[in-house]
Amino acid sequence: MGKYPFQNPNLELEDRVDDLISHLTLEEKVSLLPTEQAAIERLGIPKYSVGGEAAHGVAWVGEATVFPQPIGLACTWDKDLLHKIGDVIGTEARAYYKKLGSKGGLTLWAPTVDMARDPRWGRTEEAYGEDPCLTGELTSYLIKGMQGEHPFYLKMGATLKHFFANNNEYERGTTSASIDPRNMNEYYFNAFKPSIVNAKTCCIMTAYNSVNGTPCIVDPILNEIVKGEWDLPGFIVTDAADFSQTVTMHRYYSSHYETAATALKNGVDCITDEPELVIESVQEALSRGLLDEADIDNALRNIFRVRFRLGQFDPESRNPYSSISEEDICRPEHRRLSNEAAKKSVVLLKNEDRILPLNRDDINSIAVIGPLGDVVYTDWYSGTLPYSITPFEGISRKLGNKAVTFTEGCDCIALKSLDNDRYISIRGDDDNVLRAESSKVGVNELFDVTDWGWGSFTLKSHVNGKFVNGGESLTASKEEVRSWFIEESFNMLSKGDDIYIIKMWNDKYVAVCEEDGTLSGVKNEEDASRFKVEFLSGGIEEAVVSAKGADVSIVFVGNNPYINGKENYDRPDIILPPAQEELLKAVYKANPNTIMVVVGSYPFAINWAVENIPAILYTSHAGQEIGTALADIIFGDYSPAGRLNMTWYRTVEDLPSIKDY
Length: 661
Prior knowledge:
The chain is of the alpha/beta class. Helix content is 29%, strand content 18%. It is globular, with a radius of gyration of 27 Å. It is built from 17 helices and 27 strands. A hairpin with a 4-residue loop joins strand 20 (491-494) and strand 21 (499-503). Helix 4 (79-100) crosses helix 5 and helix 14 runs parallel beside helix 15 (578-590). The strands form 7 sheets. Strands 13, 14, 15, 16, 17, 20, 21 and 24 form an 8-stranded antiparallel β-sheet that branches.
């Protein structure tokens, strides 16, 4: 037991919090307001990092158990399952906290409970659907599992995102949602309220947008509703850089100290931005008399209530979660729970003439087809997969020695620069730079091109199996499509007769360097190089051949979670990428025994498929066990009982503006 009363675990929580704050200088208090909270060594207060991600498993710290995306978890309608998943997330968060110290946070930013009332929203995958009752119930049970059952100590602290009316990515930092009081109370609030009132969620994060003209970060509703009516037991934190964006994007204030003063007085306790900016702004607000030291004390009380309950100031012998260790990460029982969640989240959308389940005794060959057939995608807030089982692998294991083939359905091309009449090539052996230097086509000049729709194409080299990335110079260097600005996506703009110019993620155009043949970006289209595309094999033609030779074809369609819909990007439409529907139609024409599996982060308009394809399954990107789960369902070892949690509209024309709240 330490020399200060706050270090005595036998005292009441409020007494300990008050004592700790009484020993802090004003300068020290201000240093504890950013999410990167400074250590106060003289008092034995450790450095602490508020934040971290755990949308469907602990993320960004290393391998962890990955569950289906929340949009898929909501299709289970299973509160007990969500509680078990939350328990695993809490356990693995604790394990990483012990392993990494301050780098492994315990107040993680999950779950996302925003109302996904428009399926075009780029972050639909993170949420639990369009219904506040379902969202509130499922996330309450998830949070109870995450935070643990002890009456005082927390296994971890959950943080609800993003309060509130946050459902468009386009202009999210400047937009204002216009909402009447009834809609606000009966719809938007009811997604958040159960998790705070019933599950005692520790924390809540403010949204980037404004509501009725007021940025959420400075809205008095934080004090009046979240802390007042709902009695939030912890603290309110801002979203990343939202503090500075109140000036730079919303232009609600002209100075950051005004934001600091209003946010802290109206309920914000912890600010996610550059620590120096936060500290300077708070100090300026104090010097101008816009804040009192009592305002800082109030914020710190809310923060330290949670830190005490996490056990940061107590002997390990008092904390029931202190025995959790690195060995508790990715335990076999966690793997089994991931499999259970993946199976329970699958929805049977159609099953004409009982084509499903397939009878293994009657099947000699299956053609697995499509861009989602032999891959397990993660998303921006996914954890790192400890392993993965693709649908093709899962189906192959079920059929044993019987013939199972896979065809991605993408075209294989070579690109010839018309600047120097040379083919684009990579040399391999760690030299993955693209150069226009080859006079003929060999394996080094081959690229698989996948059309994800709406001007988004990916290119993958045959030499090393890596994706082309648009950095300072173009390289085939990415194991997967995974970057904030989607640097692996290109737009192939036709100029007629198989001649194309290539547009990059940053609106620059690809040009060939005259000196060494390397490829880089230029600003103006007139400076772009032109490329002759030579189609060496057609993806649809190969898929048709595969389908004709099989008893059953299973076509896997859907989205890549980093392309055409993610944080910062709303979807341009709700249909399948047209190239995928073209592939589906061709396969069905070649083999009417065709099953369609939609693997997606969102609802899709699949009108042609509903009219024609005999059996359709839907799953989200369901994590490490997606292949095993789908194979169990396809062959009848598990009966799919998932139910949709969102409306699947027939056309985007049925939707109002995405900004119509």
